Amino acid sequence: MTHPITDGIARSSNGLTWFEAEKLSDQTGLRHGFLSRKGGVSDGIHGGLNVGFGSDDDKTRVAENRARAAAAFTTTPDKLSTVYQVHGTDVAVLDRPLSRDEAPKADAMVTDRPGIMLGILTADCTPVLFHDPVAGVIGACHSGWRGSYGGVSAATVDAMEKLGAKRENITAAVGPCIARKSYEVDGAFRDTILDGPEGSDDLFDASHRSGHFMFDLPEYVRRRTIATGIASVELVARDTLAEEDMFYSYRRTTLRKEPDYGRQLSAIMLTGM
Fold first, then answer.
1. Given phi > 0 = left and psi -120 to 50 = alpha, else beta, which region is 121?
2. What is the distance in angstroms between the CA of the first residue and the CA of the last residue of the chain?
3. What backbone torsions phi and psi does residue 203 show, to the nearest 5 degrees?
4. What residue ranges of the chain have pLDDT lower than 70?
5. Where are the alpha helices (DSSP H) in the chain?
6. Structure confidence at residue 207 (pLDDT)
7. How far is residue 83's CA from residue 85's CA, in Å, rounded to a whole number?
8. Which residues contact 213 (CB under 8 A, 6 or more apart)?
9. Is the Cβ–Cβ distance between 111 and 270 less than 8 Å?
10. Which of 19, 23, 108, 236 has the greatest number of beta carbons closer than 10 A?
11. How many CB atoms lie within 10 A of CB 133?
12. What is the pLDDT of residues 109-143, one digit of tens each?
């Protein structure tokens, strides 16, 4: 088993920029990407490719941004399916694309049907994409610390197996999120992580503030995903807070006391080819 840490492969088209995981980029019949905020029509604090209808951004601009994101996958926005994310572990099994009004409360999706673009929205939390090239099954999950602690990656792999996937054939990619140097937490948070699965002292550094620590969320999600026993987990190491020109960040918005923030999209789709 291999679990590399990379910078991702940068791609761009029609003004959009996204990152691909090395191990997923060469798999046939698959398109995937961790899209940045570049290339959209939103402006102000949402400037760029804001795909979050839950933001205060103009909804026509969000719709146009989602259409541009779908076009990067050579598909249409009606094929882009997202869920109402609640920081849990529920998994939606899709046999067709979902409209916005049909989005269930869940933090993961799986499918074995080509042409369904599974999309995860984030702004510091961690997106994780999954593919079994033998069975032709994909998955995507939203893994903040709560979801990761609860086992959302494991729930996604379990749901993929019910569609015929085998964990020894599954490759996963952990995408851009808030990095250790940017994510300060308090002592109670640290205790919660240490008392849970894959909790370890080396996930934390001391902060300059007494009683606070810097938490390595991407490594934590990576370890929780590796623990599912799948074949490979690649971490695409990008910091959503530090890379302001590239990503939206809830923590950055909070520190600046801004009223709202945008969301970027991570997606995966079977092409059937």
1. beta
2. 27
3. -80, -5
4. 1, 273
5. 22-25, 59-72, 145-150, 152-162, 187-194, 217-226, 250-256
6. 97
7. 6
8. 184, 185, 186, 187, 189, 190, 204, 205, 206, 207
9. yes
10. 108
11. 17
12. 999 999 999 999 999 999 999 999 999 999 999 99
Secondary structure class of 225 (helix, strand, coil): helix
Q: Which pair of structure tokens corresponds to residue 118?
A: 């599974």
User: Nearest Cα to 33, choosing from 264, 199, 273, 272?
Assistant: 264
Look at residue 2 in the predicted model and tell me its pLDDT. Answer: 81
Q: For tokens 């494991």, what's the residue?
A: 154
- The H-or-E segment that residue 163 falls in is none
What is the reported pLDDT for 272?
Answer: 77
- In order of 140, 241, 255, the CA distances from 213 in angstroms are 29, 17, 17
* Domain boundaries of the chain, sorted by first residue: 5-179+216-270
Q: In which residue are the tokens 């939606």 written?
A: 92
Phi first, then psi, for residue 253 (nearest 5°) are: -60, -40
Domain 5-179+216-270 has CATH 3.60.140.10: yes
